[in-house]
Amino acid sequence: MPEASAPRPGDAAPPSVCRWAVLMEYDGRDFIGWQRQPVDSLISIQGLLEGAARKLTAGRNVPSITAGRTDAGVHASGQVAHLDFPADVTLSSATVRDGLNFYMKPHPVVILMARPVLPQWNARFSANARAYRYRILNRAARPALEVGRVWHVKSPLDVSLMQQAASALRGRHDFTSFRATACQARSPIRTLDQLDVRREGEYVVIETRARSFLHHQVRNMAGTLKLVGEGRWAPERVEQALAARDRRAAGPTAPPDGLCLTEVGYEDNPFTR
Amino acid sequence: MPEASAPRPGDAAPPSVCRWAVLMEYDGRDFIGWQRQPVDSLISIQGLLEGAARKLTAGRNVPSITAGRTDAGVHASGQVAHLDFPADVTLSSATVRDGLNFYMKPHPVVILMARPVLPQWNARFSANARAYRYRILNRAARPALEVGRVWHVKSPLDVSLMQQAASALRGRHDFTSFRATACQARSPIRTLDQLDVRREGEYVVIETRARSFLHHQVRNMAGTLKLVGEGRWAPERVEQALAARDRRAAGPTAPPDGLCLTEVGYEDNPFTR
């Protein structure tokens, strides 16, 4: 995901298609992630969505692009994608939503809202913000009600220390230390507009927002902040890890369970207009 | 569950046992309910708990009593039970909690806290309050993140009408119209200390509290209030249904998915002292 995300030539829908934006919620537990995979036995959210669109159009090809290609086990309450339906297929917003939801049953993936968009509107390249929530269940007992939806950390976390460490990561930085070694983004520079840590009873909640994130960036930040919360790292060490520009200088990658894509921002938001 | 719940002769632990109170969280989806069943293929929360206690004591018999015998599919975030361990088994609070949690794996049932209690303290008969939350997901799309944890109602609910209808049920009444026909309580009289309906975004949340409830009472109230929220029943009809003292006069039983036992109250609360 490049920092500058202006529409590119070729991103606009060709005149033969009718582009729809969809707002999605899913439980990432049972999926290998967003992206369709060559092996059919592995179920992806994209594969499920496009398969449902194919059924809804009696076998036509309906390609999709998403705002955030979430990894296996990562959830979404506000994911956005667009689908290019053949132009001769005319559907209402309710039919796109209900029809796709019907064909994606019984998988835990749903369309909350569907809206027709202009051909130059692009779920990925028109997005100017992504927001994620990372939830840690911080208590002795493993989760029963939130299995697969939280990172279970037994040792008590000091949230004020985590918040102090988080301040070093806010703003524009080279996030090489917090990016997956396999990350394909051209630049490691990102601007974190928000990174907050708060306690909500037994939960420690990390909220973060940026134009875009590097691969594993949120989970690597969560895994590092947890070390600070446990008292194993001084808050200052996070600033040093950032300055090192070396993945090995930061903490481990937190599990996907706790991560949820909560919102994608657009200047022209099809779901709020 | 009788309205008067003073300890009865025989409820106290015999001197040969050491009584422990446990605070529990569980996802009721995979269970036939709290109560142990004669058929072993059906998993109950009680069966799982007593089975774990048996393993923790190398095969000893450890009977349990709960504050609320939840039905199949009903969840708990604050259930309370007591366990009578043989007096010669000495365990710490952390060992009771962690040991039971270990042996209940991988089922979605956990002990949040374990505390030794006096022999006359009884999880069921010492309880002076039960609080339940009933959650309705009120939107077009079926749930993806909260599958099995909410009642999905598509038609928009008017919460102010539901709240208006709820006021007729608060206080001391004969709840025959809202009690399961199979309910075994001697008296249909109960005192509802709280019954509130509020909207939280896409959710409609019903919170209720009483010394005790009749069988299916909360789900029957939720199923009836939903008819009011949909505009199919005028709020006044709920008062009439109550006055009828006839199960057929009230609305249908709401599904167990939305129900969660959130708290059990005690004058002598072992978990807060």
TrEMBL record, chains A, B:
Pseudouridine synthase I TruA alpha/beta domain ranges (all copies): 165-267
Catalyzed reaction equations: uridine(38/39/40) in tRNA = pseudouridine(38/39/40) in tRNA
Binding site for substrate: Y132
GO biological process: tRNA pseudouridine synthesis
Binding partners and assembly: Homodimer.
Protein's job: Formation of pseudouridine at positions 38, 39 and 40 in the anticodon stem and loop of transfer RNAs.
Protein's name according to its UniProt entry: tRNA pseudouridine synthase A
Organism the protein comes from: Komagataeibacter melaceti
